[in-house]
Every structure is written in C-alpha cells, then in structure tokens.
Amino acid sequence: MSAQILDGKATAAAIKSELATRVEALKSRGVTPGLGTVLVGDDVASQKYVAGKHRDCAQVGISSIQRELPGTATQEEIEDVVRELNADPGCTGYIVQLPLPKGIDTNRVLELMDPAKDADGLHPTNLGRLVLGEPAPLPCTPNGIIELLRRHGVEIAGAEVVVVGRGITVGRPLPLLLTRRSENATVTQCHTGTRDLGAQLRRADIVVAAAGVPHLIKPEYVKPGAAVLDVGVSRDESGKIVGDVHPGVAEVAGWVAPNPGGVGPMTRAMLLSNVVEAAERNAG
Ligand SMILES: Nc1nc(=O)c2c([nH]1)NC[C@@H]1CN(c3ccc(C(=O)N[C@@H](CCC(=O)O)C(=O)O)cc3)C=[N+]21
C-alpha cells in the first residue's frame, strides 16, 4: 500500500485562485498589492526561485518589483535598496532572497527591513511577535506546511509531531506555530545532536523533515499511517533535488508530501498570502 499524496502543487493553485479574488476586491478599492524581491549575485537557483515568485504574482494580479544587484555589491548598496523599498508605497511587502554573498552581514540587512513589509515573516520583530502570540506575518514554509495538512484533512490537534531540523526558516519557527492553541499539536524537535532519531520518529503521527540531510528519514523509522513531509533540498551531482525522506517511506506512511511538488509550492503561496494580508491591513 502506498501513501496518499499531500499535493502541494494543486493546493497552492487553489490558494492562489482564492488570493486572486481578494486581490480583485482590493483593486476595486483602488489598491494594487506589490511584491518586491531583492536578488544579489548570479546564483542560478536563486534566480530561478525569484523568477518563480514573479510568475506567481502575475497569476494572482499582484504587481512585481524586482531589484537586482551584482555579486560585488557592498553592504551599503544592498541597504540602500532595502531603504528604498521601505519607502516605496507601491511595495506592500518584499523579500531579500537568501543567501546573500559572503562578506555581507545578512542580519543587519534583514533588521533594516520594515517589519510591516516582511513578506517572509522572518524579521526579528515578527518572530518575536510569533513567540508573544501577537498578530504578525507568519514564516512562509511553516505556515504552508500547516495549510497543506489542514486542506488534506490530516488532524493536527492532539497529534505527536516530530520536527527534524533547527534552521531559521523551518525547524526553529514551525514548533511555535504547531503549539499555538489553534493547532494544539505536541511537538518534539530533533536535530543532528539527537541521540536516537529512530526512537523519536517511531512515535510520530506527523514528521516534518527539514534537516537538509539526504534520505535521513528511513522507512523503518516511520509509524505506519503517519504523515511525512519532506522539506529537504540537497542536490545530487546532476543538480537534481534530493530530499530528506527515503523513497521507501511512501510504502509505510499514510501521507507523504513529495519533493518537489509538496511544501515548495506552498511556501510560495504563503508568501503571496502575506502580501495580500498586508495590503488588506493597509486598506483598513
Ligand atoms: N528570503 C528568502 N525567502 C525564501 O522563501 C527563500 C529564500 N530566501 N532563499 C531560498 C529558499 C528556497 N525557497 C524555495 C521556495 C519554493 C520552492 C519550490 O516551489 N520548489 C518547487 C520545485 C522547484 C524546482 O524544481 O527547482 C517544488 O518544490 O515543487 C523551492 C525553494 C525559498 N527560499
């Protein structure tokens, strides 16, 4: 028996069509949401991601603001672009595509962003608001994971969730979202220092693999029927994406989020959602 698919591509398409309706309503009130991207350097993967985000914007009716700087850009030049987008009334929200080139102080750039325009939900002020339970734009990948589970009817309340990874974009913030009263999951956070990963994973109703270690999650670690979401993006010699979840897991799990086609498209949909929400908030 093979697992059912948590279809991120189809779910993201449904969310985008809902967002398009909300954008139309905003436009009839004279407001057009705008998403800005700041891309520094010529990393091919980053260029592809950013291009994808602007394609998404076009589908939903959000206007795109693209800023590109060469890999030789200085700290001051990057910060000037951030200040410019902070001041631009046409820019509802924006992201600084990560990673930034070596030698750039990334945290200094991110802290300079206007938290109200933080489409990633990763500004220190907004992460702080998440801890405090105050309204704020939510981190896109964790929010996308919850939305993907919810829209497939996977029960989160009362579930034992094991999150593998402690990165800033997924592993660290995801447990904060899952343990809110509105989600009510019980969460264990594992990482490369976890003594017996298999023992932790075998208890899990939901596994989120965000460690960036190819095929870390083996079939024998997975409880039959569990939901397993693969957020790992490593690449093999030919440049193909290799996830954190071993392909054999699909024979044991009840649900799997494939990679690609699972969490990635949801991340992009939640980015658009943060921009539309910010525009609605501004419109009053
Ligand atoms: N400030 C910032 N915010 C980010 O959100 C951010 C970032 N920097 N830097 C890089 C990572 C990576 N990331 C992805 C989002 C979607 C897919 C995605 O949609 N992937 C497709 C496939 C894409 C392919 O085949 O290459 C999928 O999973 O089906 C992938 C990767 C966002 N990131």
Give a written overview of the molecule.
Residues 139-282 form the Tetrahydrofolate dehydrogenase/cyclohydrolase NAD(P)-binding domain. The protein is an alpha/beta fold and 284 residues long. The protein folds into two domains: 29-114, Rossmann fold (3-Layer(aba) Sandwich), CATH 3.40.50.10860; 140-264, NAD(P)-binding Rossmann-like Domain (Rossmann fold, 3-Layer(aba) Sandwich). Helix content is 39%, strand content 16%. It contains nine helices and eleven strands. Strands 1-11-8-7-5-6 form a six-stranded parallel sheet. A three-stranded parallel sheet has the order 3-2-4, sandwiched between helices. The chain is globular and about 50 Å long. The model has no long low-confidence stretch (mean pLDDT 97). It binds 5,10-Methenyltetrahydrofolate. 5,10-Methenyltetrahydrofolate binds next to helix 2, strand 4 and helix 9.
CATH superfamily of the largest domain: NAD(P)-binding Rossmann-like Domain
* Percent of sequence in beta strands: 15-25%
Q: What helical percentage do the residues reach?
A: 25-40%
Our count of helices gives 9
- By secondary-structure content and strand pairing, the structural class works out as alpha/beta
Distance between the termini: 50 Å
* Uncertain spans: none
CATH top level label of the largest domain: Alpha Beta
Shape category:
globular
CATH fold-level topology of the largest domain: Rossmann fold
Number of strands: 11
> Within the largest sheet, what's the order of strands?
1-11-8-7-5-6
Mean pLDDT comes to: 97
Number of domains: 2
Listing every helix as H and every strand as E from the N terminus to the C terminus, the arrangement reads EHEHEHEHHHEHEHEEEEEH
